[in-house]
Amino acid sequence: MVVVPCVVRQAARVGVRPGRRALAAVAVPPWPQRYQRQEDLPLAARLTRARADPDGHVHVGWADGTEHKLHRKWLRDVDPALTNPTSLQREATPEQLAAAHVADAWVDDQGALHVTFQESDGPSRVVLDQAWLALHTRGQRATATNPAPAWRPTPAPLSLAEIETLLPTHLPSPGDFAPRRIPRSQLLEDPLPALTAVQEDGMVIITDMPTCDLRDPDTSTQQPLIEATALAMRQFGQLQRTFYSDGLWDTAPKDAADVNDTAYTNLGLPLHTDATYMREPPGLQLFCCTAQSSDGGASLFGHVNLVLKALYEQEPDLLTYCFNTPWAFQALETNVHYHAMGPIFGAEAPQDVVMRFNPTDRAAMPQLTFDELEAYYHCLERLTALLASPKCLYHSERLAVGEMAVINNHKVLHGREAFVGHRNLVGCYVTMDEFQSRLRLAGPDQHDPRRHA
């Protein structure tokens, strides 16, 4: 999800769709109220001039005499027209960002920056508040004597040779994998095979999940569907509470005004990991199919090892960048603002690399300089294209009603094809600590007294 610029007025093409919240209703003022008057802003936050250059970037000047350049892709990326009005997730595609070209730029008498983009279907305009710009362009304003601020200390960068020691020795080929399939009854009787499958393969499919309330033949009592579903899910660990729900959630398409994530639409979703905006993203994600669409809706799964293999063989410099550069991600909800930073790849141990990536949940990164923004958007473009290619596809299948996919959210990316009709997956998260605890308890050493020493 994305920090929303405090917009002075709506961009020329931006309208609020029926039933949806206006962007201004959820934007948080970037400065204390005492700075909202033009005359009360510090000189460094008073915008005085702007012009577009032949490369499509914008040069701006401030009342304190400083001047700097704003990257054309960044200006398009923060355009409210390319932010979902209700989920506040970024909707700009790498293609849109690559094509961004500023035709004109100027500052009005209130200090607002007007930017006109020249596009194939005609010009579009965005208006950005000067105080918001001052707050979110600290990196682009950096000079040798005034370096960009660092959000937090970062460890010494890893060299490609050091990264090679972390990569798994066995890198699978796309399409070679078929997940193990375990009936729900077997899971309840002995969860170890299913837990082991997730630990070794990154995912498992549980079959014969209930599709209606269950009746106990011995006691003639009814077990509600939701309880029967949760019972199977809890074999992998206690369900994690999030701001989405106290445990279970569903992905049935919602009315436009109620959409707080693109998962609640019928749109296709690219491969990604979930909850990148948490310092410790959920360890497992579980999806139980309770209704399948009439057309489309296949579930897509990628694997971090396939991504590593493709980057190592084709773009080692980009692989190094993904290990060494923290990215910011966030989630915006009513009374919620989650934010976390971390590199796209991290190593838990040698041959144990995890991934954190969801392009729609990218947060503003004001500490990046102009040149660093170029590297940032290059990575976004190349990694997004790679994840959309067959090279990273671990497995795909159209889940049948009554089938549940369980994936390691740190290693297995997921997405879906667009669909027509009604489709619903009931799901939940489980922390990695919970899952590893269940795995140890179910393992062969569960009665070993040394475990309690």
UniProtKB/TrEMBL annotation:
This is TauD/TfdA-like domain-containing protein. It comes from Monosiga brevicollis (Choanoflagellate). Its cofactor is L-ascorbate; Fe(2+). Gene3D superfamilies: 3.30.2020.30, Clavaminate synthase-like. Pathway: Amine and polyamine biosynthesis; carnitine biosynthesis. The keyword S-adenosyl-L-methionine does not apply. GO terms for cellular component: mitochondrion. The keyword Metal-binding applies. Pfam families: TauD. PANTHER family: GAMMA-BUTYROBETAINE HYDROXYLASE-RELATED, TRIMETHYLLYSINE DIOXYGENASE, MITOCHONDRIAL. Keywords: Carnitine biosynthesis, Dioxygenase, Iron, Metal-binding, Oxidoreductase. Belongs to the gamma-BBH/TMLD family. SUPFAM superfamilies: Clavaminate synthase-like. Residues 193-429 form the TauD/TfdA-like domain. One of its GO terms (biological process) is carnitine biosynthetic process. GO terms for molecular function: dioxygenase activity; metal ion binding.
